[in-house]
Amino acid sequence: MTPFVYARADSLGETIAAGAAPDYAFLAGGTELLNWLRLGIAEPTRIIDISRLDGLDQIEALAGGGLKIGALTHLNDVAQHALVMRDYPVLSQAILNAASPQLRNLATIGGNLLQKTRCAYFRAEEELPCNKREPGSGCSALHGINDNHAIFGWTEDCVATQPSDPAVALAALDAVIVTAHSSGGRRIPAAEFHLLPDTRPEAHNVLQHGELVTAIELPAPAPRSAYLKVRERESYEYAIVAAAAVLEMNGRTIRRAGLALGSVALRPWRLIAAEEQLAGADIGDRDALSAAIEQSFVEARPLSQNAYKIELAKNAALRAIEKAARMPS
Q1: Three-state SS for 64?
Q2: C-alpha angle 275/316/204, rounded to 5°?
Q3: Is the full-model pTM beyond 0.85?
Q4: Bridge partners of 178?
Q5: What is the edge-to-edge ordering of all strands in the sheet holding 269-270?
């Protein structure tokens, strides 16, 4: 582990100024950063503790409707908040499926979005070809063990997936990620926060150097929403496939749908074509629902060992839709 200097930030302005320096890392819950340091994924010379910044750990209703969640709010506090449980069950369910209670009590919602891929080649203790670790070195998973890797959006530079459960729910909800930076903050659609490898294979998200996530804003309540996670064991394992569904219903008819998959690409994967086809469908017509979902899998491309994920993802999407429809409005 590379030696580093530790400093605690006392204000947002101080944090932004400190983040302008090279080779820094922000520390919130630390549940991911400690792994990065141990594996040599990150080697900062300066760690800036932002865990005690005032005002970034609150959940509050927005004046025009919706909800604002401070980036330093612990995952358990988000998942068990009365308004989140009632109005955004998809987010509450995603968080409760994301990690053990101990980790959820420490990890923050903003930090969770900054998780790096769980690809075993990326996180290997020995040096292996990986464009995310060493740009230009290649992708070991492309022709290696890739049974749990991407079926959408991959290139020969990287076939990994993004592991965050809350990120999938936020993408389906059309949430917005709010940031602060020395040159001014941004409002980034959650579905566009993570980067596919066709832009910068070494990058995980769109954040600029020194840019800090300060909040997540949710739109109007979505009580008919649900999250489904498929994994090898029920002990907070990372997903093989996950699905988030957000529905607006008129009786038994779907008026509008938001649908996103997790663990199938380097970002939560919105099923746009399926969403368009689902509008007007009867929730009890499984053939129509399946046909709508099928529209978004035309662009699916399995790797040598993960073709099974295509059918699994289709079924997960269908089950998430049906689960969302059963939620009380």
Answers
A1: coil
A2: 75
A3: yes
A4: 187, 215
A5: 225-230, 241-250, 253-262, 269-270
Domains and CATH numbers, the chain: 5-49 (3.30.43), 59-114+164-218 (3.30.465.10), 225-325 (3.30.390.50)
**Residue whose structure tokens are 């459960």:** 165
Pick from 167, 213, 209, 211: nearest CA to 190? 167
DSSP-assigned letters across all residues of 256-313: EEEEEEESSSSS-EE-HHHHHHHTT-BTT-HHHHHHHHHGGGTT----TT-THHHHHH
- Cα(55)–Cα(52) distance, rounded to whole angstroms? 9
DSSP code at position 238: P
Tell me the per-residue pLDDT of 147-190, one tens digit each, with 9 for 90 and over: 999 999 999 999 999 999 999 999 999 999 999 999 999 999 99
- The alpha carbon of residue 82 and the mean position of all alpha carbons in its chain are separated, in whole angstroms, by 22
Query: Which tokens sit at 108?
Result: 């923050």
Give the separation between CA 97 and CA 115, rounded to whole angstroms: 16
Place of tokens 């965050």: 164
Segment (H or E) for 213: strand 212-218
Q: Output Rg (C-alpha) for the chain, integer angstroms.
A: 19
